[in-house]
Write a structure and sequence with these properties.
Elements lengths: L1 H13 L4 H11 L5 E5 L1 H17 L3 E3 L13 E5 L6 H12 L3 E6 L5 H5 L2 E4 L22 H22 L3 H7 L4
Parallel strand pairs: 1-2, 1-3, 3-4, 4-5
Family: Belongs to the SIS family. PHI subfamily.
GO molecular function, one term: isomerase activity
Organism: Sulfurovum lithotrophicum
């Protein structure tokens, strides 16, 4: 079944995200600091999902590129999502944020990317195919482009939100009260 194959591939992508790493990552979001989120393309959409959930939890959160995003300052957090770890807009944002004293959190699949080098903390979601192929066989049952990274990142971040809800004793009713109502 196709769904089972996808789930197996997602498990592979999340296998490096161990429990200690996950708990350390959560700590950044319990500090009640302003949080900024960036990513391009579909990774950017995952970032927006995450930003919305953080807002539902009561965090002061901003998505880079939106017109209401304030300047980043010392002590703020910037979450950068990039499978390649080399996306120029994401790397440039991380570089600038670091100059202003922000903490950089990276979610990437590339341990050698510029983003990992800039980050104060990195979550590795390794969905890259280790076998180098010149051309993907049409019969390969692998989702297109960055699908595995994006879905794995989304699953990881949604799990993080659930854990923060539990730690902070925030129920769905409290979150629903912060949900858009107009």
């Amino acid at each position: 079944m196709v769904a089972k194959r996808l789930i197996q591939q997602l498990k592979y992508g999340l296998k490096n995200a161990d429990e200690n790493n996950f708990n350390e990552f959560i700590e950044f979001f319990l500090q009640n600091k302003r949080i900024f989120v960036t990513g391009e393309g579909r990774s950017g959409l995952v970032g927006k999902f995450f930003a919305m959930r953080l807002m539902h939890l009561g965090n002061d959160v901003f998505v880079l590129g939106e017109i209401n995003t304030p300047s980043i300052q010392k002590g703020d957090i910037l979450v950068c999502i990039s499978a390649s770890g080399t996306t120029s807009s994401v790397v440039n944002s991380a570089t600038t944020a670091k100059k202003h004293g922000a903490t950089i959190l990276a979610i990437t699949a590339n341990p050698k990317g510029l983003l990992k080098n800039l980050a104060d903390f990195t979550v590795m979601i390794d969905t890259r195919n280790k076998k180098k192929r010149k051309k993907q066989n049409i019969n390969d049952r692998k989702p297109p482009l960055g699908t595995l990274f994006e879905l794995s990142s989304l699953l990881y971040l949604e799990t993080l939100i659930s854990e923060i809800m539990y730690i902070c004793k925030i129920d769905e009713e409290t979150m629903r009260a912060r949900h858009v109502n107009i």
